[in-house]
Amino acid sequence: MVEDITGLLEVWVAGWAGCRGYRTSTEGRFPSALRTDKTGEWEVFASEPTDDEFAALAARTAETPARVLTILTNGPSRYAAMAARHGLNVTSDTQTMMIVDMETQDAEDPWLSDDDLRLFTYEQDGVHYAEVRSGDAVAASGRVFVVGDTAVFDKIVTQPAFQRRGLGSFIMRALAAQAFGHDVRTGLLLASVDGQKLYSHLGWTTVAQVLMLSASHDGTDLSLS
User: For the chain, how are helix, strand and coil distributed in percent, rounded to 5?
Assistant: First the structure.
């Protein structure tokens, strides 16, 4: 099944921005988000732009080192080469966009087998949060924001001291249970290399590669940063 990457990207940006309270806009036909908590600059997202579209976006991005152009593509080497010609650096090329049919996901609230851990869930400004705590320490956490019939998952993090205890899967199930309070059909997220292993195990599949470009050399994964 060939996914509409452009449509998925627009939904993902809306959900990701919703999770983080970012203001959104458009750069031509491409969605963008103002990363007020990170760079104070707009980040533009494009799926498979044409050469001319890429040139225009790259020129705008190159004006300020803090600006980021993020490309979703199944041909990352092509855009990496184009970026070099336009004076941009590849600051991240390991993330992927992943998708899942929510009907395949566990709709029940999960339970913890470890008596030292507790699950806390809450909702604020449309964002659903899940945290596993050990005493006052947050062991694992994540969030989800629903756009139409799509649940966009974000910042799924397990702290190093609590890794390899299944907490990533647990957080995903806890967030899915909250998302099912809405009429959701699809799940979307951007995944780091470590995340890709977890989500594949949970039935998610890769839609596209993610290429982050900037005039600087600094870059971090969108899924976590």
Answer: 30, 40, 30
